[in-house]
Amino acid sequence: MFDIDVLLPDLWEISGAIPVTLAMALVTFVCSTIIGSLFALVEHKQIPVLREFVVAYKVVFKGVPMVIVIFLGYFGLPPALQFVASAFGMEINAHATPNWAILVVALTACLAAFQAEVVKGALNSFDKGQADAALSLGYKSSQLFRRVLFPQTVVSAIPDLANSIMVIMKALSLGFAIEVVDIFAQSQLTAALNFYYLEAFLVAVVIYMVIAYIVTTVADKMESALRVRT
Amino acid sequence: MIPELLSALPLTLAITFVAIVAGFGLALITTTFRVRRVPVISQLADLYVSYARSVPVVLQLFVSFYGLPLLVILIGGDDFLTATIAAMVGLSFYHGGYLSEVMRPAYLAVDRGQHDAADSLGYTFRQKITRIVGPQAVHIALPGYGNSIIYLIHNVALVMYIGAADVMATAHLIMERDYNQYQFPTYLVLAVIYSILCLIAWLIIRAFEVRSPMYATKEAPVRAALMPSV
Lengths: 230, 230
Description:
The structure holds two protein chains of two kinds.
Chain A: H1 7-15, H2 18-45, H3 48-63, H4 66-87, H5 99-124, H6 128-136, H7 141-171, H8 183-194, H9 197-226
Chain B: H1 2-7, H2 9-36, H3 39-54, H4 57-74, H5 83-109, H6 112-120, H7 125-156, H8 167-177, H9 183-211
Helix pairs in contact in B: 2-3, 2-5, 2-7, 3-5, 4-5, 5-7, 6-7, 7-9, 8-9
């Protein structure tokens, strides 16, 4: 039935996958935040044609489950890459693309749609009067961005960004379908070796909850330390 | 191919429906304990909500798939559990925890004066919920509720991994029968099917959202949960 003795070896083995998971989560987070910020900027500045594209992109990637996006990337990305490469006359074997790269690309595509919302919300919370004040003081728009807009929007976005890191951590668990080993996949492999399934999965549950607790605590601390009281 | 895929749709819809109903009940109970701060139970409810929100849904499904039989045997029942029932239970727990985190902010977002007025008139908690706070909270919670339904539909696609014969599993059968020639098109079809399901759910919630403001006070702050949940 339930064997307590295997918990500790399982924990040791499964926690070996934490660094890889965190690294993939970080890459996905950075890429999707950059793309999402571009989308939010397009919507904020109301650039004609690109805006419709962004809206369509959001609708598509919010309506389709992430598993299916991952599988579409898994089967669609290498041929597409091969096609593009051969069109430019490059000699690469795109079918040797590592699976983790495909997973990161697929998740970035999904998460960009949601990060755009986060960044848009943060931009909307920015006080227009401060922009006017900075411009009237003779700031260039790059200075306005760097000294006034960016620090405030980042701080007001911290809770949502922490939330999205956790979402990415969880979304990486779908990678086991395309043979990417993260915390969840490692727990499955461990369980498959010694047949103590429930134990391994409970260890993974505890790991995920601890990581979530750490992320939210750090985010709260950062936000309360950085937020300017008015 | 499409008629065969659609033949598995009833099971997907059944799992979704059970999770919606049972998850709603669970969320009501959990939220009640959390807002009333019943000593030990509210901490347990908090733990449950953080479990439902910070652990990947695949992992939750596996935990219910391997954990439920153990539970049933411990209380001395027969092991009648199939993958479908495990999927229903797992998704209900996930949806309940997620929904509780939609309901509690909505309850707290109702104007403080309304709570105080109800309390000072001697309403019991149940009367307060059904007559004063509930109708107003519904309006605040509806966008978040719509999101949670859409994420639930997304996550029903994961049920395949514990062996329930839903649309995804049928798609895999079809693909394997065709010697895995048409994987990309099949996943495209799946993406369209899930998008349509999400669209229908969104339209239904939208219809309620149009009707709901009749009980709302003017300046209720509406902020739906932005991020997906996997």
